[in-house]
Amino acid sequence: MRLKITLIPEFERQGISINYNQHIATWLCKNIIASDSSLERIIFDDVDCFTFSKLLIPGRKFAIIHDKIFIDSDRVELYFSTIYEKIGEALYHNAEKMYALKIGERRFFVDEVKIFKEKRISSKETFVTLSPITVSENGSYLFPNSNEYFLKIKEWLMRKAEKFGYEFEDFFEMRVLKAKPKLIRVFDNAVRCLEMAFEVEGCENLLEIGYKTGFGKLNTFGFGMVKA
């Protein structure tokens, strides 16, 4: 289930830290649990069942100065995706009661939550990230110049498939078309990641899981969301 969440900044030209992922992750979990407390166990499982985009500002009306983003738009957008309909519904049906998103001392108020149509995923797709992909193993970050990078992405998708009860085949091939490195701080950790466009071919169920819950690691902290 995909949602588009429209947020209204509290002030004009509102400035926030560029490292906001943990604030959005905490806010989403708080609102999901407020709507349905039985979902707490699911969203804090060690297998990520949802992901979200970076904040999208219409018309790119913003400026980055040092470590802050100054927003010149009267609204910002956030996309959310989950494999569990009941998690998406918890946000959608509770839209009018959702807590304000607070990033530092700045607040954003929920204006609207819409269900966003999902694409039917085939065995061959081209994806573009809505939030960057991060891949690591044993404390070291991996990148597409290593075959291990693609192997780890496939392994995590297969682990998700087992958790979510999907049948799957061990078939997954990925080719990066273009990539831009990013460094995002989440709490006290500096996360190395890539915004990218990529082609992927493989088991439809694995590709669908990546589309719905994110590719790579730290999906519930706003990494690995894609559009087709």
Quick tags:
228 residues; alpha+beta; Alpha-Beta Plaits; 5 helices; 14 strands
SSE topology sketch:
Layout (H helix, E strand, L loop, with lengths): L1 E8 L4 E4 L3 H15 L4 H4 L6 E3 L9 E4 L2 E4 L4 E7 L2 H8 L8 E3 L2 E11 L7 E6 L6 E2 L2 E2 L5 H18 L7 E15 L2 E14 L1 H10 L12 E2 L1
Antiparallel strand pairs: 1-6, 1-8, 2-5, 3-6, 4-5, 7-8, 9-13, 9-14, 10-11, 12-13
Task: Please explain how this structure is put together.
The chain is α+β, with helices and mostly antiparallel strands and 228 residues long. It folds into 2 domains: 2-116, Alpha-Beta Plaits (2-Layer Sandwich); 124-227, Alpha-Beta Plaits (2-Layer Sandwich), CATH 3.30.70.1900. It is 24% helix and 37% strand. The chain has a 5-stranded antiparallel β-sheet with strand order 3-6-1-8-7. A 4-stranded antiparallel β-sheet has the order 12-13-9-14. A hairpin with a 2-residue loop joins strand 12 (172-186) and strand 13. It starts with a strand and ends with a strand.
* Portion in strands: 35-45%
Order of helices and strands: EEHHEEEEHEEEEEHEEHE
CATH architecture of the largest domain: 2-Layer Sandwich
**Gross geometry:** globular
Q: How many strands appear in the DSSP assignment?
A: 14
